[in-house]
Structure formats: C-alpha cells, structure tokens
Amino acid sequence: MHIHLYQYTQFLSLLVAILCYEGLCKYKLSAFLPMLVIVNLIEVTGANYRALGYIPWLSNHAIYNLNLLLETPFRLYLMGQMLRMRSNERLTFRGIAFLCMLVILLNYLFLQGPFVFNTFSLILIQILTIVLSCFILLRLALREDIRPNLWQDPYFWVNAGLLLFALITLVILGLQQYMQDHKVMLGGKSLYKAIMPLPNFILYLGYSYAFILCRIPKARSLLSS
Amino acid sequence: MQDPQSQIVVIIIAITIVLLFIGILFLVMIWSYNNKKLQMAREKQQIQDAFEKQLLQSRLEIQEATLNAVSQEIHDNVGQLLSYAKVQLNIMEQQATWGQEELHAIKDTIGTAFTALRNIARSLNILKHAAATRVQIDMLYLPEQLQINIHDNGKGFNVATALTNKEGLGLQNILNRARLMGGAATIISQPEEGTSIKINVPYA
Questions:
Q1: Cβ B19–A137 below 8 Å, yes or no?
Q2: Do A164 and B34 touch (CB under 8 A)?
Q3: B34 and A141: CB-CB below 8 Å?
C-alpha cells in the first residue's frame, strides 16, 4: 500500500477528531468525524487505485470526483455551523449551499462527467470556501463579546487552514487537468505533486490543533487569556 | 529565453505565492484587530475598576464621617445630658431636698438622653433591620486570613432580592468593603431563619 507523507496528517486529524469527539460536539463540529473518514478512505483509495486493477469507475479522477460530491455537503454544513447565522441568513445560506450542490451534481453527471476531474466544481467549492472562511474569520474578530485570543479559538484554526488550503489549491487543482495534459513539471515531479503536500499539511495540522483546542473547557480558555 | 512550460510553472507558482501571501496577510490583520480590541477592552475595564474603587472610597469616607458625627453626638449630646442629670442629683443630695419639681426635671433629662441613644442605636444595621435579640460574632485567625462569622437570630431576608433592591445598600457595602480589602464576603439568609455573614480578609 502506498501512502503519501501528507496523508499521515490526514490520519492524525482523524485520530485527534475521534479522541476529542466530545469537544467537537460542544463546538458543533462533530460532522468533522464522518467527513474525515470519507477523506481518508478516498485519499487511501486514490493513492492505491492502481493496485485494485483497472476499473472504469475507479480511476483516480473518478475517486476524487466522488470526494467532491461527498465532502462538500459536510464542509458546507460545518461552515454553516461556524457562521452562527441568524434565521434569515440561514435561509440564504441554505439556498446557496443547495445551488452549489446542484451545480456539482449536474457537472458530475452531465457536464464534465464522472471520469474527468471536475475542475469547475472544484473551483466553485474553493471560491465558496474562501468567501465563507473569510466571513467566519471576520465574524470571530468583530464579535461584540470579549473572548480569549483568536489563537485559542478552534474556529480560527479550522478556517485559517481552509482559507490557505483553498487559496493554494484554487490554482493548482483548477489547472490540474491542464497540467496533466501538458505535463507541467517542477524538478522532475509533476507540479501538482510538488505543491499539494504543503496545503494538505497546513489544512490537516490546522484541523488537528483546532480539535485539541475543542477539548479545553471554555471557562479555562477564557481564564488563560 | 524560457520555454513556455517553464513560464507556465513560474506563473502558477507566482500566483499561488501571491494568493498565499494575501491569505496570510488577511489572517494577520484579523489577529491584530482582535488583539487591539482585547487591549482596548482591558483598558476600559481597568478605567471602570478604578472609577468604581474611587466611588467606593468616597462612599466609605462619607460613612466614616457619618459615624464620626454619631460618636460626636453621643459625646456632646447624650453625654452632656447624663452629666447634667448627675449634677442635678449631686445638688439634690447636698441640699437634701427631694421636691417633685427637681425629680421631674431629672426624669426629663434622662428621658431625653434615652431618646437620643435609641435614635443612634436605630441607625446601626443589625439592630435597625434584623429585629434580632441575639448576635454572635466569631473571629478566626487563620494562617493566611482573618475569618469573621456574624450570625443573628433576626427575621432574615431573601439575599438575592435584597441585593438587587436599592434598600440593600448596607449589604452591598459589606461586600464592597470586603472586596476593597482584597477579601470576600458571603451572606446567607432566609426569611424567618436569621442571617449569617462570613467575611474573609487576607492579612496583607
């Protein structure tokens, strides 16, 4: 079985999520657990799909397209929880999330199809992630009540990781098909493989640290500020 | 001249770095804003605390002045009246005359003194409010603090209600004074069950 180095950070974040599950529930982040299970399963399958033999619906791109389909609802749900919206905002958010999922599904089924990497869907998801994580971070900074330093807030680490991940991968994954077709290389390695470990490290280490912070009681984190 | 593929690689990396830089800059700005907000809130809290402390100090000074006035009153008024009554008795003893008029005058003097004393007594807390017949005060000299336990068998009251009412200024005063000395006071009371006050004050 082949496992990339960055996948260990994904395993780590899943392990920490299991250990800190109670804390995640307190912060309404429990959906991270199924999301990380899906991500880990898909990443392991994606890295070892050749070992499974040639199956049309199990090509590398088909697997990552499935990831887009399965991970996105969880990510949108989690971001909705972290936004702490008012009822009218929640309605708008649900509408946007529904439209986003509809576009991804239509792209998967009819436009780009299940066997070509769905770059349009990915660009849409990453733009939405950038916008929503910026909103969440702004809300954290602009909130009225006095809370501990942002460094001690799990939402900060989750969204900082998501923001940086989405900003890097917007270009790299958006051009993934192009880079593959034109064999764009860096130091003898495909540019995709050369750059992708970095945003993955940032994202999953950010998640892991946020999960650990969820375990610290709120009162204690307030006192330590 | 670079080949087109290298140029594409450079542009992709450049755009990625620029985006990453913008992201990090945004996070730093958010963090810096939050820090400034926290600092301002802390400063505001400090100013508020200083103001409250000053206010409390002024209140205590006023109370101190009131108590001084009460003691002055006892000394100058009640003391004088009782001394006068004593002088009247001495005069009667020397003259050996026990007329009704003199006795009446002494009775009046002592009566006035009693009224003045009763008025002063009414202004003291436990007696004024608690309607208690017994007050027990224990002072425990613990290693790091002095603990004062005051218990009366008076009519008692609802602590939460009394503290929120304006009438509970005396109780607030107890809590504030203890806080000012770096200690804490706990008031436990129930209607018809008396009142217990525990005050802990550190030595230094």
A1: no
A2: no
A3: yes
Q: Using CA coordinates, name the residue in chain B closest to A142.
A: B34
Tokens for B66, please give them: 């009131």
The answer on B86 and B67 residing in a single domain is yes
Closest partner residue to A150 among B13, B26, B30, by Cβ? B30
pLDDT along chain B (204 residues), means of 10: 75 88 92 88 88 83 79 76 78 72 76 73 62 83 87 86 71 80 88 89 78
Determine the residue of chain A that is closest to B3 in CA distance. Answer: A184
B20 neighbourhood in chain A, CB within 8 Å: 164, 167-168
- Shared domain for B113 and B145, answered yes or no, is no
Closest CB from A141, A168, A225 relative to B30: A141
Domain containing residue A157: CATH number:
1.20.1070
Q: Note down the domain range covering A49.
A: 5-218
So what's the pLDDT on residue A45?
87
ipTM given for this complex: 0.78
State how far the Cα of B117 lies from the Cα of B52, in Å rounded to an integer.
35
Residues B161, B157: Cα–Cα separation, whole Å: 8
